[in-house]
Design brief:
Length: 123
């Protein structure tokens, strides 16, 4: 296994990552970094985030076909209306209904639910 080096850029990335309290994309992370440290490139940001996910230090989710990241073990749940195509993020914290179905411990999860929203049901 390849040993990861500690560099000035990694130290900068680590410092900025520690400030993250919500979901963020690699692009959002890069824009913040680029304003403070113009020498850091987008490829460096992607490599850093992928390494953190591989080491289970960072959690990765998919939203609008883009990767989102979080330091916390959060749920990422969407409801998509198949008629009006509105998307709503849901805040679901309890997954007890899945515990007996999963052959292991749940770390974090992402669920996409599709259906017809109440507004479209009335129309």
């Amino acid at each position: 296994m390849r040993q990861s080096r500690t560099t000035k850029q990694k130290a900068i990335l680590e410092e900025e990552l520690a400030t993250k309290k919500t979901f963020f994309s690699a692009e959002e992370f890069y824009v913040i970094l680029k304003n403070k440290y113009p020498q850091i490139g987008i490829a460096t940001v992607y490599r850093f985030l992928h390494e953190k996910v591989d080491k289970n230090f960072l959690h990765s989710y998919t939203c609008h076909r883009k990767a989102l990241y979080s330091l916390q073990k959060k749920a990422h749940v969407h409801f998509y209306c198949e008629q009006c195509h509105v998307e709503k993020h849901l805040d679901i914290k309890n997954v007890d209904f899945l515990k007996n179905e999963i052959p292991g411990e749940i770390c974090h999860f992402q669920i996409d639910v599709k259906g017809i929203c109440k507004k479209c049901q009335k129309d």
